[in-house]
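Q: Give me the 3D complex with alpha-D-glucopyranose.
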Amino acid sequence: MNAQWKKSTIYQIYPKSFYDSNGDGIGDIQGIISKLSYLADLGVDYLWITPMYKSPQYDNGYDIADYYAIDPMYGTMDDFDELVTKAHEKGLKIMMDIVVNHTSTEHQWFQEAKKDLTNKYRNYYIWKNGKGVSEPTNWQSKFGGSAWAKTPETEEYYLHLFDERQADLNWENEELRKEIYKMMRWWLEKGVNGFRLDVVNLLSKSHDFKDDTLENAQADGRKYYTDGPKIHMYLQEMNREVFAKFPGTLTAGEMSSTTIEQCIEYTKPENKELDMVFNFHHLKVDYLKLEKWSNAKVDYKQLKELICTWQKGMQTGNGWNALFLSNHDQPRAISRFVNPQKYHFEGATMLAIMMSALQGTPYIYQGEEFGMLNPEFTEISEYRDIEAINHYDILQKKGFSKDETLEILRLKSRDNSRTPLQWNNTQNAGFTTGIPWINVGKNYRNINAAEDEKSAKSIRKFYQKLIALRKTESLLMTGEFEYIQTAPEIFAYNRIGVDEQLLVIVNLSEKGQPIPIIADNIGMNEIILSNYRQVDIPSKLMPYEALIIKKTKR
Ligand code: GLC
Ligand code: CA
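A: Here is the predicted complex, encoded as structure tokens.
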């Protein structure tokens, strides 16, 4: 329980949109290096950087063509080494994003594999015969359409759970697994400090490739490969072959449609698999009947319930959560969960407290530290993401009008979080002197890092306090989570220790609320962090008010 990293805060960088050092409109490694002081100053411990490997970029780098090379648009391997060295000098650790469920079809392995049935690399991927004219199974790609595609060279189909140009690797093949472990060790030898493992619970596909006939919205095949039969074996092997050889390596697995039971298995220390997991159930609270591409209001009750269920479940099983509301696949949390027009600071800081005081390791997604919002795109030509572009057609074929489709994209597209980091109010928000690869959010003149820094209500300064608090207040790490029943608009919980406890109360609404009864008159109550006040505990909560109160038994 004393693992140092449990006190850490992790900052996610989407390099393409972080900072462009050479004016080509694309963020790059030298751009990150030039902002290391900004990051160190925020107080974060790790930088998770999304993939910068050589890639054709059909899925912004999650389609890796060479695991051993940096994509030229980001710089060179020397730049990367310089980044690692300079980050370490500033006390920042580097977490690589590694994608081992699939490669780009431009990867040399696939280029060889597709040639003929007997190629040495054929067995690195998953191939099946079709059923007459149709695909081997009715499984769906996560980006829309069938999960199977053919190459012209042979009659077989290969599996791609994501884009057609991302072919799934065959983890049954031991030779492939060894290649992957070797590559991961190579990065650790270079000095990186950890991995964020992309969709890692999808590695093990069940042997019987069958049609999914479940009568529900998710009859897409996921039950045949989510948390698949050999997944724990693979992760334990990876741990032995890679992580254990480099003590201190931090690992976070991205889990698709998983369960608490599985996530306990992935993270309980005695299993020796991963340190923590991302799950996404709490980010589906504005889906309509499990459908992301819909226009539904946030169900806050469900949000609270899901967070609590995961907190309690993971705690009981000795698992560990990654805590987050934002990443490069999600719309901006502040646009999504609060009313930023009226309560930008209050809403942003309330969400920060709500998440960071839970049990787990908090993540900040670039720009979240000063309250970046969705860019409010209105034209399909503004979108870059393959998933959004695919769904522009899919939704209209389903009968949505063009306007309805654009409205859904505006709310749900992954591009919402991928627009350039808004550094200041100069042209292109100070991100680039060239033409940015994706439009800058329309609000950048008001919402940017420089403006926030000047403001009396600086969100970034609030994050600094919160990050520092995690280091000094050990109950945030060890305190037992206990949910407190309250009105639906309020989320309250305890983090209980032996002689002291933390009480966290947040108002999820933009209206004032009576404060739930909390005083037990034993000992002392002291506000240790709040987005409104410092001293007296109020009798009424202001819009989006959030408090961490420390209670000490006397
Ligand atoms: C993960 C990544 C996402 C990517 C997908 C396929 O969900 O976060 O950006 O598109 O995996 O690699
Ligand atoms: Ca650049």
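A quick observation: The chain has a mean pLDDT of 95.
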